[in-house]
Amino acid sequence: MKRLSLQELNSGSEPALELDVAIVGGGVSGLYSGWRLLTAPNRPEKVHVFEMSDRIGGRLESIQLPGMHIPGELGGMRYTTQHEIVTALIEKVFAAQLTPVPFSMGDPATHYFYMRTQRFRANAWQQAQAEGSKFHSHYFLRPDLCGFSPDQLFNKIVYDVLLADPWFVQNYAGKVSNPARYDYRFQLTAEDWDSIKPRLTYCFPGAYHGMHVNDLGFWNVIKDQAGEEAFEYLGVAGGYYSNVANWNAAEAFPYMVGDFSNAATAYKTIAGGYDQTAYALADAFLHQRGSAIWAQNRLVNFEKTSAGPRRYSLTVFNGPSQKTWTVHADAIILAMPRRSLELLNQFNFFFDPETQLQRHRHMASVIMEPAFKLLMGFEEPWWKEHFGCTSGESVTDLPMRQCYYFGTDTHDSHSLFLASYNDMQSVPFWDVLESKDLEHWHPHPHKPHRIGTRTLEPQTWKKHARWTPRATSLAPQHEIDKFLDVQAPAAMVREAMAQVRELHGNAHIPDPYITHFKNWTEDPFGAGYHAWKAGVNVAEVMRYMRRPEPAEAIHICGEAYSDQQGWVEGALCVAERMLQEHFALAWPEWLNPKY
Ligand code: FAD
Fold first, then answer.
1. In this structure, what are the phi and psi dihedrals at residue 209, rounded to the nearest 5 degrees?
2. From 112, 132, 220, 524, which residue has the greatest number of CB atoms within 10 Å?
3. Which residue CA neighbors atom 8 of ligand 1 most closely?
């Protein structure tokens, strides 16, 4: 699948353009909406996508470091077969363009956990259990919880809360089981969960007795069920602080047992990178009559028009010309997350804080969860040589949190390593090391800059501020030079490598020859992913967002206000629902009718 060039994406402008539907956001939900609209039998004539950056894909961004052919993922990287829209798109609709490949999680016996300075193999819990003993971590868990791996403990908490509610037992007891001490099984469907989530009651004596689980945060529940030390343990050992944030507990339950704590979950990705999904959608969209993608064009505002040719006029800022232009459209789809919505003009008829209180309350009903990734290229897969690992991840309480061994290029020995995948409270640790501060030292990228008595030429300055990538036998200097601007700051790389060495207990791990990093907390995303707040009526807010004002043809879609947050699948489910409800699209023939 080839990347679309800026020319194909069209980075110009066409003032007074008239459209049936203007889609704002070239992430998967926007591109999917455009493709579905223009391939429907009752299709509108003209549907264009507006994207503020110079690429499409949004929070999917696959990159290729010089010297290797393995794609590096800065954003989303995998899907599961439970993701039915994604799976059908990749494996049926775009089967000719996309090649699914397993996303290997490797052998836990070759991975590390390093928490509270205790280093052990990731299969330590299962190994002890097989021997009839308990693995003791440096966490002071209650005696009855000691020996549970983080996945098993997540499952136990969900299971215990479900089975304490007589209503659940009466209706669904046959669908969950606990056949052995550490073995919890859940056969609840998405439909079951839709009915359980708003009804489930917390039936334990104490502060929360009789409350709806939907009104509690997941932290509240974990603390009440297992204690604060267990909460600390699950936050760290589970790999993601976002999983145990105090988000809506009823939403957290299916999320945790359906994926993260389910050892049977098999992941897949796409050869060439997960963002190929976005490119396949964009390519198919652009092949339709009446389509266009306007890159480097940022929506600034939209207003109702009384005399104009269409219902709404959109003010779009064109990056290359630094000028605004007007687009007229009969319907608008805002395919973007919470922070992007908040960056639009908040004083127009739609967002007016004086009159649109409910809109702002609903927009704020999701937690914005910071996420950060730091990729590195190595000449040799040191993880293979040092401890026989070929793929998968290790986890630590150090701020780097998770690292992934992405494997070795089949053509050579150069190897890709995700040195840090971290979220929530660990992101600020890296924030301060970002070159944002260095940009203050050197506001103009093309002019020399004085620091004290020294004058630094731009290239010298960049090399001082950022990690200096090194040419290798397979990555010649001219290739490396193209990556100078995306290098992580040198201090960040030094710090990350110190943590990587500490996690593995190996001071001889070499330095990378190249790096690349991304902090999704920056605008316009504001977060890597989102989570519903406790107490929110999720079904109602999701319905509301798909058409916030019944009298207006303005729609919001994407991952942020979905019931599979943090996944491409969530973004696509919301888009599909919105298209069926408000654009009269029929159920797609390629999608399981029972989904
Ligand atoms: P986005 O991708 O955020 O798209 C919004 C688009 O709108 C962006 O392109 C943005 O530039 C544009 N935009 C914003 N404002 C404007 C404006 N004013 N004018 C014009 N354009 C605008 N999902 C998975 O399925 N599997 C994973 O393994 C996975 N891992 C992840 C790891 C990380 C680190 C992150 C950050 C995300 C991950 N996700 C994963 C989630 C997945 O990437 C998202 O759910 C999905 O890509 C969101 O798509 P979207 O269309 O809702 O929004």
1. -55, 130
2. 112
3. 58
